[in-house]
């Protein structure tokens, strides 16, 4: 069975619709056919300043949302990154074969450091993609289901795997990105040329899994569109409508062409109202289940500990191999 690895940062209490449609939906769908490993990447979350108490809550909330969305802890290995020290350890080794210039070219780093300013730009933010490569390479991962914004990080991961292999011998499997066609990039509802992101300028364009259903509906009804009247998919000239159609199509499984046909001659208001309904219908049970799971954090922690045991066993084996290959003396 192909090995699948992916993760999300617990850097906000709620995941958003981009995280869900771009990645989490695929994580769930892949479960039956693969050996899935899903991680809450808390080490990544501290690359920008965090509040410790909030991080703890958000980490549990993120795991609870994975479960609520359909991740089955029996079929999937579900764990928290900091519970498996091999991630940080392999990241160190990989950082020594990563070029400074190579890391400097990462567009997410450039965007984030521009946003946070020179003072808040840490070495951790810079080496973030190397830690991500370690996450993936520790498990002999075949496929990495992510949104389009992770494409460049995946390329770096593949480069590092190949470089290590050619310098020290076959050690890592070179993984492939698994990026959906339609929902790879969900855009902000208020600013449909920017991707939906937790660091959005305004809250009203960001659809959170844990928003109150009335709030979600309102966000869709006030989505920014254009001055035409035609419901037609054309991301270049109609980014707002195209984003709504993308979301609609992914949530319901209806091809975009069919949506265009059934909304021919109808107004934007109809589309927004219907879409608000289908999204709320999809997200409501996830929200309810997440809140239910959060009522028993001890049970959640128990599940995560079990996942960490399973992950650690695999990760430690790979790390030991890496340590041998780079020439470290084995501890007796
Ligand atoms: P993160 O936490 O920013 O996002 C989690 C996942 O959501 C996807 N995503 C989107 N997809 C479509 N439209 C959007 N607007 C949108 N916004 C986010 C992301 O592509 C991602 O799949 N570096 C990663 C976390 C990570 C990771 C890993 C992923 C760490 N180690 C190993 C895979 C494998 C990140 O920051 O994702």
Automatic annotation (TrEMBL):
Catalytic activity: tRNA(Trp) + L-tryptophan + ATP = L-tryptophyl-tRNA(Trp) + AMP + diphosphate + H(+)
Family matches, as InterPro entries: aa-tRNA-synth_I_CS (IPR001412), aa-tRNA-synth_Ic (IPR002305), Rossmann-like_a/b/a_fold (IPR014729), Trp-tRNA-ligase (IPR002306), Trp-tRNA-ligase_bac-type (IPR024109), Trp-tRNA_synthetase (IPR050203)
GO biological process, one term: tryptophanyl-tRNA aminoacylation
Annotated GO CC locations: cytosol
Enzyme class: ligase
GO molecular function, one term: tryptophan-tRNA ligase activity
Binding site for L-tryptophan: 135
Record-listed ATP binding positions: 9-11, 18-19, 147-149, 186, 195-199
Domain of life: Bacteria
Subcellular location: Cytoplasm
Keyword Protein biosynthesis: yes
Its EC number(s): 6.1.1.2
Keywords recorded for this protein, A-Z: Aminoacyl-tRNA synthetase, ATP-binding, Cytoplasm, Ligase, Nucleotide-binding, Protein biosynthesis
Motif stretch ('KMSKS' region): 195-199
Subunit-structure text: Homodimer.
Function according to Swiss-Prot or TrEMBL: Catalyzes the attachment of tryptophan to tRNA(Trp).
Recorded family membership: Belongs to the class-I aminoacyl-tRNA synthetase family.
Official protein name in the record: Tryptophan--tRNA ligase
């Amino acid at each position: 069975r192909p090995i699948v690895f992916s993760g999300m940062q617990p850097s906000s209490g709620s995941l958003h619709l981009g995280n869900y449609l771009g990645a989490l939906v695929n994580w769930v769908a892949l479960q039956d056919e693969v050996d899935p490993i899903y991680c809450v990447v808390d080490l990544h979350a501290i690359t920008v300043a965090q509040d410790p108490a909030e991080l703890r809550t958000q980490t549990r909330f993120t795991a609870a949302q994975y479960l609520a969305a359909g991740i089955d802890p029996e079929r999937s290995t579900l764990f928290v990154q900091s519970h498996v020290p091999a991630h940080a350890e392999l990241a160190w080794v990989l950082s020594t074969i990563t070029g400074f210039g190579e890391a400097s070219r990462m567009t997410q780093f450039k965007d984030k450091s521009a946003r946070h300013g020179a003072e808040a730009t840490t070495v951790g933010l810079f080496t973030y993609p190397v830690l991500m490569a370690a996450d993936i390479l520790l498990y002999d991962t075949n496929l990495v289901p992510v949104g389009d914004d992770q494409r460049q990080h995946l390329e770096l991961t593949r480069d590092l795997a190949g470089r290590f292999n050619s310098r020290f011998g076959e050690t890592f499997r070179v993984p492939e990105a698994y990026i959906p066609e339609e929902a790879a990039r969900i855009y902000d509802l208020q600013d449909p040329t920017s991707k939906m992101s937790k660091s959005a300028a305004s809250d009203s364009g960001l659809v959170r899994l844990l928003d109150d259903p009335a709030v979600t509906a309102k966000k869709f009804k006030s989505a920014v569109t254009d001055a035409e009247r035609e419901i037609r998919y054309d991301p270049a000239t109609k980014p707002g409508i195209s984003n709504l159609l993308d979301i609609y199509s992914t949530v319901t499984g209806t091809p975009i062409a069919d949506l265009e046909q059934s909304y021919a001659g109808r107004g934007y208001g109809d589309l927004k109202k219907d879409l608000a309904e289908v999204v709320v219908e999809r997200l409501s049970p996830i929200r309810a289940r997440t809140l239910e799971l959060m009522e028993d954090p001890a049970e959640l922690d128990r599940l995560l500990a079990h996942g960490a045991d399973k992950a650690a066993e695999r990760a430690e084996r790979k790390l030991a191999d890496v340590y041998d290959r780079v020439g470290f003396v084995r501890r007796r």
